[in-house]
Write a structure and sequence with these properties.
heterotrimer, A alpha/beta (349), B mainly alpha (341), C alpha/beta (271), A: 349 residues, alpha/beta, four-stranded parallel β-sheet, 13 helices, 11 strands, 38% helix, B: 341 residues, mainly alpha, 15 helices
Chain lengths: 349, 341, 271
Amino acid sequence: MKPTPVRRILWVIAIVIALGLLMAGLARAQPVHIKDDKGREISLPRPPQRIVSLLPSLTESVCELEQCHRLVGVDRYSNWPEAVVGRLPKVGGGLDPSIEAIVALKPDVVLMSVSSRASDRLEALGLTVVQLEPKTHADVRRVLGTVSDLLGVPRAQGADRLWRVIDAGVEAAAQSLPPKARNARVYFEVSRGPYGAGEASFIGESLTRLGVRNVVPASLGPFPRLNPEFVVRANPDIIMIGNRSMQAMVPYPGWATMRAIRENRLCVFGPGDSDVVVRPGPRMAEAARIMARCLAEKAPPESPAAPSPSPSGGGRTQWPGKASSTGALAGATPVASTVGDAGAGDSCT
Amino acid sequence: MTIAFIHLHQSRRAAWCAAWLLLASAVLAVCGASVGSTGFDSVLRMHGDPVAWQIVWDIRLPRTLGAWLAGALLGLSGAVAQGLFRNPLADPYLLGSASGAALGGAVAMALFGVSPVAAQWMARIGITGMAFLGAAGAVVLTLILARGVQHTLRLLLAGVIVGVVLGAVRDLVELASPDILQAMQAFTLGSTAFVGWMACALMAVVWVLCSVVAWMLARALDGLTLGEATAASLGLPLMPMRVGLVAAMALATGTAVAQTGLIAFVGLAAPHLVRSIVRVTHERHIVLSSLMGAVLLMAADILARWLLAPQELPVGVLTAALGGTYLLWLMHRRTAQGGAL
Amino acid sequence: MNSVAISARQIGASIGNRLILQGIDLQLPAGRWTSIVGPNGAGKSTLLKVLAGLLPHAAVQGEVQLLGRPLAQIPARERARQLAWLGQNEGSADDLTSYDVAMLGRLPHQPWLAPPSAADHAAVEQALRTTQAWDWRHRPLSQLSGGERQRVLLARALAVQAQVLLMDEPLANLDPPHQTDWLHTMRALVDAGGTVVSVLHEVSLALQADDMVVMAAGRVLHQGACDAPATHAALEEVFDHRIRVRHLDGLWMALPSLERKNNQGNKGLEA
């Protein structure tokens, strides 16, 4: 007699389920082969479960790939997402980490930047070190892919999906710009020096995608140190200052005559926004949104000759999706004090 | 100071000084193994927990020993420099080795990011190797500029010039790749965080070598205290001896700086501290300065790791604080007693 | 004793671009004490350095012979054992004790890397006692007065126990009792067979030596016994007759001429 079809079907279903679980499990436990930014090949028998990250953009990448739970330690500058990362032990800076603290955490892999001496020491102690440092949009995409492979997250759900989201976000930010903001000429200052963000940097690339022009040409490199005179001569329409410190309060000599300063077309990003904008990581879409907001606010009208009153009015503006503090609009006040207020929080006055 | 202590024969005092310094080294070594971000627990759990064992054995002990050896190298160089230049303000960085090492480190860090070919070659030497090459190159440049070791003043001047020029070149390198700025700052402030057992072995070998060379040539330094002409009249072959001393100094300084960065003040303060306790000829003065520098840097490193644990202070800040405070107190005591400084 | 301790032939020396010595021919006899005198800038210190072989070869023309052998061919350590040199205003070893400084004089005798031997200690003790510096042998030089320091440096030169002793202004900072002591020491050395050459600007003390060399403007004007009238005449002449040499209590002395300047043309007035 033949066995009943029901039992056969049940057996087949059981075997299929078992195989499926096995495959899923194997997919998780596949050995990992990646190549880091220093050109080294790294192989691990299974994706790492305990990760220490010493670069904020890499921390954010891991979390955006939904593997935040695998982080056991971060550097002191990683601060997003607050809920998870805030509770993790901090093991020092990215360039001068506490070797002992890292070893005590028993990580499977340590993610860090290329320009750090600690890598030799950590490797000498037997830890696996993956060095990645994105500098352009293409780099960010590649690094996302590498991290995705390292974590054993299939590209389709991990890096590629994330990149599509980022890309769409940047595109949307570009679309949201009013016409008057397009073709505005922008100067982005990264830190006091002045160090500007050129077209070749990831910030510059974001600005290009937003449709504005950068006064710092690509020929000068990604983050050149400029002569303040250069900026005065270039006469940007909008100035963005992306550092966290209060340095914006002291303008450079000779800048007071610049049109952008006189007309208060100045965006000073507070600590929260600053972190988003200067990190080449998965929050680049948000960075683009922040910059687009600034451009929409501050772009000069079509006829540059018309004087534009600085946006006044009280009340706080709560930007959608932002958890940072609000800024206080100070009305038509001189540049210095406005900029000072701007330093108090998230604002684009 | 009682009269009896003053009349105690200097060489016995020197022996006591050495013994105390060695004892202090041993005590501090134990402290060094107990201090760090995970505190004393690691020592207690050493036998059971392999990670605790690794922390104590592979991280803390080589750091502590490395601090001792780097301090010994700097103390040795400082004593030789002060003897060679007959200047109590001389320190081991006078011949430009500090600027050379910093430039080597900066070039290494800058090239790492730029060219993969250079990166491969550089990976073998490492930042440490490049820093050492930079230090050695700077000293050679100084010697060439000064056209030999005969004229002390010319040597000093050439060293200062080389230091300034190489510092400017380093600034240019940092301008070209500003992302190394923070790493360079970490380098210039000095730290023992990157010292492992291999580095310790290297420094130990160099220390023994330089100590032997300096000890053998210490006579030249003694003779030079009486003046160049008198030293020559005593039959000392000054030229080759000076070359040997400069080479020992450069090797010791370059090695220390390459491993632990630019730690100021140890080379300057250690010989003075020794001289405040005991006055002996250079053979013993060099050895004692070496031991004193070792203890000074070891103590500073332990404090650096302990004061703000789990964070670390830069050790150069602490060496300046420790050594400077003691020297200030010494000055105050001397002027209070009315003696010459 | 007829042998020559140091002989110098056709010596010329220049420092930088300046010609300091020219055409010097000198035979310094062994076993006698010669003093070298002359006005400031006569080249006395330079001459002493040339005789000690301390100027670079490029700066010196002519030949110097030490105890019959050309100086340039004697190995440095052997020369250091035969010839001790005490300089003027050389660097000071402020941090070493007096004993250690005096011990430095034994360097030419100590083999490489050897600790001081009993003979070294004996020599240092004898030298320190001779200059009366033994009592504070454990004090560092920085705590000594100028005179005490000079005595330690003298002890250093004596500790070499060399046959020939060249000294440049050895009496700097010494008070009269110690100057007298030094005279006695030199006399004793010479009586024991050594040779002493000293540059002195205290002319009266220089006159107590056996021989005198009178120098001016880089040349030797006169060499002769200290009690010879020709030497006295040369001495008075080289100092523009501002001094006169007189015999007093069995010693030759140089006394200042207190006549006015406009009398310079006359040779010594009072008898």
